[in-house]
Structure formats: structure tokens, C-alpha cells
Target: tRNA(Ile)-lysidine synthase
Amino acid sequence: MSQPVTDLPSRLLLSLTPWRNAARWHIAFSGGLDSTVLLHLLAHLAKNHSLPALNALHIHHGLQVAADAWPEHCQSVCDELGVPLQVIRVQVQPGASLERAAREARYNAFTAVIQANELLLSAQHRDDQAETLLFRLMRGAGVRGLSGMPRQRTLGRGHLFRPLLDVTRAELEAYAAEHQLCWIDDPSNQDRQFSRNYLRHQVLPVMIERWPQAVTTMARSAAHLGEAEGLLDELAQIDLASARTVSDFDWLGVPSLELAALAELSAARQRNALSHWLAALTRLPDTDHWSGWEDLRDAAPDARPVWRLAQGQLHRAGGRIWWLAGRWLRPANDAVAWHDPSQPLVLPDNGMLSCRGQIPDGPLQIRYRQGGEVMAVGDRGHRDLKRLLNERRVPGFVRGRLPLLYRGAQLLGVANLRDLSGSEQDGWHLHWAPLSEDQGLS
Model:
């Protein structure tokens, strides 16, 4: 049973209580019915309650001619309510799904705007949640997908909150009529070729005619699945804790997990733990693509399997799996002269190199492995570099980026590797600080 429209302001204020100390509330304002009601509610609540500063954000996708007039409409609404408006124009990348591409462009824009301790308020409601559940069910989603839209989540440096998920579309329409609000009717919302519109106009009305409480019960199912997802997340944290062991190559700053700890789990727990871990790194694979994990996990010990995902790759080396993206996926090839070894050397796309202790005589040069290198190692004489790297179990993906210190044709040292990175007798040591993830490796 829907609650009276007159309760909407108090219900909204109650749901926003935990966020009253935020620095600013941004409202995702499309100009449509839902966001217009949300903006109107917040603007009027701000007159009688101490709320954070309000700011409306309108994303202009530029996908249809009619949309060019929407920023002006949004500005007039905001002017009337006394809420500042920020219009952001985005470029929607072409792809198989226009809906997905527009959503990604929109949320990328929101992420760029939202600062620490700020909140983005979005106006999705209970009917939207039911549509989301049906849409994802048709796509074969698992528990995470079928839990629907979360009420809150992190967004960039701030948070996203959906305060109207317990409110029906009918309640919003009644509020808009009572307050004589004007809003934009997006023509594309009637286009049945878009899956969500088809569900909204063709499927849900038939279901509601047969089961009047369908929207409410589907939202309840999404909440149950959300609780199940929380339990699966807790299980994933337990399983990942045993796989986040110390590695000799932690200094690389590359995310990695111990393979043996994962392999001891059931297949379902492996997928659950990896999904949780990968979610922060890449778009998750669909069900069929998970065979790539099995191939990587079960490959022969001397193999170098790779599982290619949307934003990077998983490699297996040294009894671990490693997440590689960006520059880690290509070797560094450019030789660099080191004219002043007393100063750190910035390597193109490969971090920084420094020499500690007594500096070797020059002229010196930094090169990268090409194959066939030989190095003098103490009383062991000359040894193939490949064999030396194998002895130290250096992961294959690192070998093409390890800085090699040369004097003429002589290989003097390999950065960061024990017994190879310098000379105890001559008192020097070569230290390499790879680019961190924050510096552009993912």
C-alpha cells in the first residue's frame, strides 16, 4: 500500500538523515518527472531545515535534437527554486548498446564532479527497481545483478544515494500534479527498441494487471538478493584474506593473489572471490568467459597462461595470479643514457631509477632485455641473464621492464634483484621504483 503523497517530504528527509553532514548535495537533474520531483522536494525542505548546499547537475548527451532545449528548461526550473545548475556536455561513445554508452558517459561526468564528502542524489524509484530486476533477469544476471540498484555506493571520491527507491512512480506523479510541476518528456522513453522501454510499456503493465503488487514484490525480492550479495561479499573477503599473502615482488605494486589458496576453494567460491577482487579493476566477464579462469588455473606449471579481460589481463607466475593493465602489457624498449648517476633517472613510462652508494664509472646506459644477455656474477663467472632471472623466479611480465645497467657492452647490474643489482665490493646498488597504479598503469 502506497503511503500518502503528503508524507513524501518527511520520508525523504528521514532517508537522508545519515547524509546531513555532507559538504554538498548534488542532484542528478535530467529535467524529467522523477528528478524534477526530487529537486522540488529538496529545495522546499532546505527552506525549513538545515541541509547541505544544493547543486543540480544536468548531463547533456547530445543524442537527439530535442535535447538541445533541455538545459534552458532545467535552468528555468532551478532559477525558480533557487538552486544553482551545472550543465555538463558529454560525448557518448558508439557501441553495441547506446543505453549503456550513455550511462557510462553520464556517470563518468558525475564521478569527475563529486568531491570528497559530497553526495550525488539520483531519483530512481521503486518502478525503476522492478524494471532493473526484470532487465537483468533476461540477461541471466547472478545475485549481484538481481539485487538491483543499490541504495547507496561510493562514486569517485564521494557517494551516490537513491532516496526514492521506496517510492512508486504513481506517488511521484501525484506529487507533481499537486504542486503543478512542469517536466520534460523525453521522446526516446517511448522507443520500444530500447529494452527498458519495452519492459516499462509492454511487459510491466501486463504483469501489474494480473498481480497489482508486482512492483512492490519485485522490489522486495531485489532487497532479499541484496542481502544475499552482502553475505557473498563477506565470504569473498574471508577467502581473499587467505590469498593475499606476501610475495617477493610486492614492491612492483601490481595486484596479485596466491593461486594455491584460491585453488583450494570450490569452483563457486573461486568465482565469487575473484569477482569481488576484479570488480575494482575491470568490467566483470560474462558466464561463458569464465572458462578463461579455468584455463589459467589449470595450465601446466611451465606454461604462461593469460586471461584477457575488458580492462586488462590476468597472468600466472611464481604461484600467483597478477593483474596487469596499461603499460605493464607492453615492454619498455628505449635505451636511456645516464649522464649523471648521482641523480635519479626518470625512465620513459617506466618509473624512476637511482644508484645508491659508490657510483660506477661511466659512460652508463639503461637498456632492457632483448635476449641472449650475459652477466658476470661474483665467483660464478659469466651466466646467462635468462638463467639468473629463472633462479630468482622473476615473473615473465616483469622481465621486459627491468632496467639493466650497461657500461658499453658490459652488463653491470639488474635493478632490485638480489646479488644482481650492484656490487658489494664496489659499494653500489641499483634501485628501481616502477610506476604506481596511480601514475597510470591501470
Summary: The first strand starts at residue 24 and ends at 28. The chain has three domains: 5-219, 244-324, 336-439. Residues 438-442 have pLDDT under 50 and may be disordered. Residues 27 and 121 are 5 Å apart (CA to CA).
